[in-house]
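@channel sequence for tomorrow's demo:
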Amino acid sequence: MAYTDILYRVEDGVAVITLNRPDKLNAWRGEMDRDVRSAMHAAADDPAVKLIVLTGAGKGFCAGADMGMLQNIQSAGANRPQGARTSSTREPWDAKANPNFQKEYSWFPAVPKPIIAGINGACAGLGLVLSLYADVRFASETAKFTTAFSKRGLVAEHGVSWLLPRLIGFANAADLLYSSRVISAAEAKAVGLVSRVIPAAAFEAEVMAYAKSLASEVSPRSLREMKRELWNAQLQPLGEAIEAANTDMPASFASEDFKEGVAHFVEKRAPKFTGR
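structure tokens (generated this afternoon):
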């Protein structure tokens, strides 16, 4: 498929989706929403893809909603971006997903492959929200972060009031939401917003090295099941999470990847996982 606002490639089991409006710091608009959804479908459907990296071209990851889109909302008196997904829309992969992961921007957790956000630069507003729905976040040392909403007269949109406190604690979340102040990659790492800060010159190479290590060294089935378990567990008491995992265990013991996991360890060779 031809894309307008992104670049898409598959490299050694890793699908790379690059937001590609560098002159606008990859500001989000309807075309980008459409393209990212399409690329996520392509990655989810491709058996050669084990996981997904979402990143940005140029100096920005995603600077938030395109200002033209916000101006259109203001002039039209609308309460949602034109062309955005309604909460009643369902993606093919999320028919069995928790309903909480079937909303307008909360669908990343329902994608059946891990998503790594490679935050190469400015990450603001809606761009920050999208990164929070990824499973892992790595930041370039030059990246900057801001919630931005309070300086636009907006609210804690699209579930960020649920996501941020779970990642960085209530007080830190309140600070970033109330103030909309800009924080560095170093501060983002210190509060737990990102897992790793990487020198800018080595950023793409290190993100891809990590992604490729997952694609080649661990079970795709385990990644798929663990992602589902991790996100569902955010909505479960401990006992329910334990019972859900216990229910999943027999199928894992019967899987080809479990057999291969034991065999490659005993035989001291590289694994050949099938994802089955």
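heads up for whoever presents: The beta strands are 6-11, 14-19, 51-56, 60-62, 115-119, 122-124, 136-140, 144-146, 183-184, 196-198.
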